[in-house]
Amino acid sequence: MKILERRDTDAICHLQLNAPDRLNALSDEMLAALQEQLDALHSDSSIRVVVLSGAGKAFCAGHDLKQMTAGRQAEDGGKAYFKDLFDRCARVMTGVQNLPQPVIAQVHGIATAAGCQLVASCDMAVAAEGTRFGVNGVNIGLFCSTPMVALSRNIPRKQAFEMLVTGQFVDAHHAEALGLINKVVAENQLSEETDALARLVASKLGAAVKIGKHAFYDQAEMSLQDAYAYTGDVMVENMMNRDTEEGIAAFLEKRPPDWTQ
């Protein structure tokens, strides 16, 4: 049994965290498997959308605390291991954002600590009714400083800080209101609703979505003036694409576009 299952359907890649007995914790093995798939997907032009889900009763419960405890047995008290662990985790989280394909988190059960960070790192998220989200490391004396990076870039600062400093869960509807997820659906419709969103995104011109995703994150870090200058250049690049020309012509002629990509 693989710790991370991959299933490709048409232009959609489904990745499923598959360690349900450990609530799909981001163990060393899980992080390695995720990094391997992210590296492969980065150059896979046949895939237009990635859906990330979890097997069993939870999406992801964060880091593997048993492995972290074992890491403390090193002579340095685990300092080198922990530094390497959080560096590897950061590569996975930024790797999700750096993929050319949009990534949709399909969330159920719980998404806690680094599991919540993983949801926040995805481009979109759909959650089942009853799902709970938390960055509750503070409850065991470990402030969720790395999950804070993704969380504070998804939701307002005061709400993010409240979650981080209280360790309390928020339910799916509150998470939707905060902007952590896109929508809440009935649990028995979670896969269907997520796939519908994935198919809709996959139906768009892949080259345009790739350009747009990259620009979306880049411009967010710029001043208003720099962002307009940068995205103007991006629009020019997009307009030079043959399939964009075809898409505009098809719209004007009221017919489906004949895209090559």
User: Poorly predicted ranges (pLDDT <50, ≥5 residues)?
Assistant: none
Q: What is the second-level CATH architecture of the largest domain? A: Alpha-Beta Complex
List the secondary-structure elements in sequence, H or E: EEHEHHEEHEEHHEHEHHHH
Helical coverage, percent range: 40-55%
Number of helices: 11
- Strand order in the sheet with the most strands: 1-2-3-4-6-9
Mean pLDDT: 95
Shape: globular
Outline the biggest β-sheet. Answer: 6 strands, mixed
The CATH top-level class label of the largest domain: Alpha Beta
Can you say what the CATH homologous superfamily of the largest domain is? 2-enoyl-CoA Hydratase, Chain A, domain 1
Number of domains: 2
Calculate Rg over CA atoms.
Answer: 19 Å
List the helices and strands and how they pair.
Elements (H helix, E strand, L loop, with lengths): L3 E6 L2 E6 L10 H15 L6 E6 L10 H7 L7 H20 L4 E5 L2 E3 L1 H8 L2 E5 L3 E3 L10 H7 L5 H10 L3 E2 H7 L4 E3 L4 H13 L3 H15 L3 H16 L2 H11 L9
Parallel strand pairs: 2-3, 3-4, 4-6, 5-7, 6-9
Antiparallel strand pairs: 1-2, 7-8
Helix pairs in contact: 1-3, 4-5, 9-10
What would you note in describing this structure?
The protein has 261 residues and is α/β, with parallel strands linked by helices. The protein folds into two domains: 4-202, 2-enoyl-CoA Hydratase, Chain A, domain 1 (Alpha-Beta Complex); 206-252, Lyase 2-enoyl-coa Hydratase, Chain  A, domain 2, CATH 1.10.12. It has eleven helices and nine strands. The strands form two sheets. Strands 1-2-3-4-6-9 form a six-stranded mixed sheet, with helices on both faces. The protein has a three-stranded mixed sheet with strand order 5-7-8. The protein is globular and about 65 Å long. It starts with a strand and ends in a 9-residue tail after the last helix. The relative contact order is 0.11.
